[in-house]
Amino acid sequence: MLLQQVIQGLAIGSVYGLLALGxxxxxxxxxxxxxxxxxxxxxGAFYLLxxxxxxxxxxxxxxxxxxxxxxxxxxxxxxxxxxxxxxGRDINRLIATIGVGMFTRNLYRVMFGADPFxxxxxxxxxxxxxxxxxxxxxxxxxxxxxxGLAYLLRLFLAKSWMGKAMRATAQDRETAALMGIKVxxxxxxxxxxxxxxxxxxxxxxxxxxxxxxxxxALMGIKGYASAVLGGLDSMSGAMVGGLILGLAENLAGxxxxxGYQTAIAFLIMILVLIFRPQGIMGRRQ
Amino acid sequence: MRxxxxxxxxxxxxxxxxxxxxxxxxxxxxxxSNMAMIYAILSLSLNVLTGFTGQFSVGHAAFYGIGAYASxxxxxxxxxxxxxxxxxxxxxxxxxxxxxxxxxxxxxGLYLAVTTLGFGEIVYQLIVNWVSLTNGPRGLIGVxxxxxxxxxxxxxxxxxxxxxxxxxxxxxxxxxxYYSRVGRAMLAIxxxxxxxxxxxxxxxxxKVMAFVVAAFFAGVAGALYAHEIRFxxxxxxxxxxxxxxxxxxxxxxVGSIAGSVLGAFVLTFAPEYLRAVGDLRLxxxxxTIVLMVTYAPHGLGGTIxxxxxxxxxxxxxxxxxxxxxxxxxxx
Lengths: 285, 331
Fold this sequence. Notes:
The structure holds 2 protein chains of 2 kinds. Helices cover about 75% and strands about 0% of the residues of chain A. Chain A is mostly helical. Mean pLDDT of chain B is about 85; it is low at about 320-330.
């Protein structure tokens, strides 16, 4: 029972972690808490739904197309809504992201209705029995893909030229520009990357929950909480924050009360922040 | 000689506010007006916290909900008089504000925002799950209508006067706070907490106080809502509601008192009048918010201040570069 909740928690936690990575990327490069992240995940999940279910494409091909479509969406949104207000006040930029989220969520509600779409389990439904333990394969897959992606992202940021340029831009825009980095391109790329990672998080969670226009609100809040819990200046913190939130939620749901699941997760988060205001892995200012 | 303009303006605005029900008794318009005034109180109270003191909150609906349930429960279950309900709503919410204000001493910016967000979620889930007290998701029915001077305020247009009076009272108190020693201290903390402390301002005291004041008014707004709609359920106090209040304050102008009221009215009425376009209205609503903050960064309040200034002084005032909306304050 305990182990089962832990496995479920790890899967959900790795999805939260991916969402949190999007928040951390945005926070570092753009200096804004992006409330539209969750809706970006919703859009990603819808793309996968469209390509794999409505168009009947092979799941791998559908996934690749959905990632491409997410990237394109990110690029367009950045041009229309994020770039123009880059020099604005923090609170205005934050409200702009809320506006973008509202726009997206309701656009999808107009296009697809408010009803949830079931998403078939891609990784097979047959649970694996290990002793008394029943493991649903998709939980393992989600955890593996989540952490695999986080690791790839880490490699990309540490080793590749583009990744280094993105980190330099995040650290100090002016100096980065002086060093010959095309700051605007690098910021656009960060935005697209954050959208794609969030979109993949949405695609991963699609078989666990339903795909619907309103799914972004809750996903956004969970990702935001994970990012802050882990520390906004740390990539590994985002994954750690996501895991803690996912585990706390599932354990609280399994052993205390499923009604208070989210409340308990947030209570833990607030307690952690009182004792470590900069987040678990964050640096002290 | 001081200009007569502000005084005339106040009288005209008050007269307009109180005479509105003489022109229309349409229940739909009256109900929307009541809601707009409730939101105006909420947005004003959030302004004390965020606009004056610079403490970010994304959990304001929690205080609103606490106030609504406090008053509704007292009046339905214990049969307390309505005015007791209103006061209790404010006091209970203020106590919750003090509790939430304490972590605020160690957290700032986005870390504080996420704490308030979490607080909002916790309060929401408490309301949903504490069925023996709150009746859970099914909500509380039969919240009584107030009786004032022997007259029962059970129609939207009679209730209007109560909403208007509480809104005027809130505007008055918030304006007094803004221009008082307390308000100056809050502004100083917003601008630079370290410098404020060096000037002898006890920032701990004022930061918690901002939470208490903001929560008090939000609680009263909750009671006002509960007795207007006469039925409350947890769905009225979800996180989305906190975000709506935040949008009203920012679209109105951060730190601007007139702006908060205006933002609440515009964002309450606009979606209703956009019903003509059907489901697309919330899409347009989102787009409007993005356009507003991009092209009117000082909010409606800031735009009005510069128009007024041109009217009375014949030229455009200079808003501080990267300004903070303080220039747009005043009623």
